[in-house]
UniProtKB/TrEMBL annotation:
Protein known as: Nucleoside phosphorylase domain-containing protein
GO terms, biological process: nucleoside metabolic process
Gene3D superfamilies for this protein: Nucleoside phosphorylase domain
All copies of domain Nucleoside phosphorylase, residue ranges: 43-340
The organism's taxonomic lineage, starting at the top: Eukaryota, Fungi, Dikarya, Ascomycota, Pezizomycotina
InterPro entries linked to this entry: NLR-like, Nucleoside_phosphorylase_d, Nucleoside_phosphorylase_sf
GO molecular function, one term: catalytic activity
Length: 389
């Protein structure tokens, strides 16, 4: 069977046909509307889960209300607008119980047409850590609550691990590489990394400020859970059952040296994105060996080639059978705090000089670029040599 391709714009249209008759007209500012026009917002922030959007809200320096110009019928997103680190930011979340690259692409596409001057994006949320505990390099000793930023010399720092082809010699080749983040964000990333050689990051500072502002978030799990709940088990040892690891054999835990403090560390490396949740340590090990990845997630492929952005993930589990939700909220907060600090290093003039993300999307939706993106978003439509890990 030959290749079949799907136009991402047609996906947006199909999902919004039911709303077209009830579209809200653009009548200008109303009660609860932002004091700023849609065209003044230049950074797009995409979250996959409600807890991630809550963490983003907790980091805002100001809240602005609803968009002055309501979204049109081709945009079903709801937005949280505000100011963060001196920039006007648009925050959107994937629909409830929808995850994955295709849903992320639809959300990003709608955002770019409602807020036409967005220059760059950040994909912020939780992910699974791929621990490198057997390495001598302490910078790759990933713990729960740490943050991973997709970064790799000469590439996007993000790979699609479950889409490629098996070569005649038995090796596996990923067919597509994803676009690099915008230069403005990469420059900011370099400066932030350099700064953290002389001082600690601000993640704890910003989380504490969020919890002071919204004390109820402590009850919802956004405070640090405690290092005793950060348990990494041998690759071959499966979970004993239950919501926690209370029944698991403690002799199967991997010993790791305690850290000087509980501040999350920021790691830079390859983020592996795929179409399914990984809860299997041997699969995690294969991805680590094949791609050198340090983090796993599910949405990045839907944004990278449609929305010039960077991927930031708070580590909430180790992609094994012991995976649970205990660290989700704190990991989301850590990622959001890291994103806030990163924006402090972005130069406003450099951001203004970036091409509008909407224009980049329109270019990509022409000719071969459209094919490139759609295969990534809908790998099930490509029936030739689609293979896991």
């Amino acid at each position: 069977m030959g290749k079949r391709f799907l136009n991402v714009n047609s996906v947006v249209e199909t999902r919004n046909d039911t709303r077209r008759k009830n579209a809200i007209p653009s009548t200008g500012p109303g009660i609860g509307s932002s004091p700023y026009g849609n065209e003044e917002y230049t950074i797009g922030w995409v979250s996959a889960l409600p807890i991630e959007m809550a963490a983003a809200k907790g980091m805002l320096d100001e809240e602005h209300g609803d968009p002055q110009t309501p979204p049109q019928e081709t945009d079903q997103n709801t937005y949280l607008l505000g100011a963060l680190s001196g920039f006007k930011v648009v925050i959107a979340c994937l629909p409830k119980d929808e995850v994955g690259a295709s849903s992320a692409a639809v959300v990003a596409t709608g955002m770019l047409f409602t807020f036409p001057n967005i220059r760059v994006g950040i994909m912020v949320g939780i992910g699974a850590g791929i621990p490198h505990y057997d390495d001598d390099d302490e910078t790759r000793d990933i713990r729960l609550g740490d943050v991973v930023i997709g970064s790799d010399r000469g590439s996007s720092g993000v790979i699609v691990y479950d889409f490629g082809k098996r070569l005649p010699n038995g090796s596996f080749e990923n067919i597509y590489a994803l676009d690099r983040p915008p230069r403005t964000l990469r420059t900011a990333l370099a400066k932030m990394e350099a700064e953290h050689q002389t001082r600690e990051n601000k993640i704890c500072q910003y989380i504490n400020s969020m919890l002071d502002k919204y004390p109820y978030m402590r009850k919802k799990g956004f405070a640090y859970p405690g290092s005793s709940y950060d348990q990494l088990f041998e690759e071959t040892y499966r979970h004993a059952g239950g919501r926690s690891c209370a029944a698991c054999d403690p002799t199967q835990q991997i010993h790791r040296e305690g850290r000087f403090d509980t501040s999350p560390e920021i790691h830079y490396g390859i983020v592996a994105t795929g179409s399914a949740v990984v809860k299997h340590a041997p699969t995690r090990a294969q991805i680590k060996q094949r791609h050198g990845a340090i983090c796993l997630e599910m949405e990045a492929a839907g944004l990278i080639n449609n929305f010039p952005c960077i991927v930031i993930r708070g580590i909430s589990d180790y992609a094994d059978s012991h995976k649970n939700d205990q660290w989700h909220s704190y990991a989301a907060a850590a990622a959001a705090a890291c994103a806030k600090e990163l924006l402090e290093f972005v130069q406003p003039t450099a951001l203004d000089a970036e091409r509008k993300a909407k224009d980049v999307l329109q270019i990509l939706n022409k000719g071969k670029s459209r094919r490139f993106n759609i295969i990534l978003l809908f790998p099930s439509l490509h029936t030739n040599n689609n293979e896991s890990v």
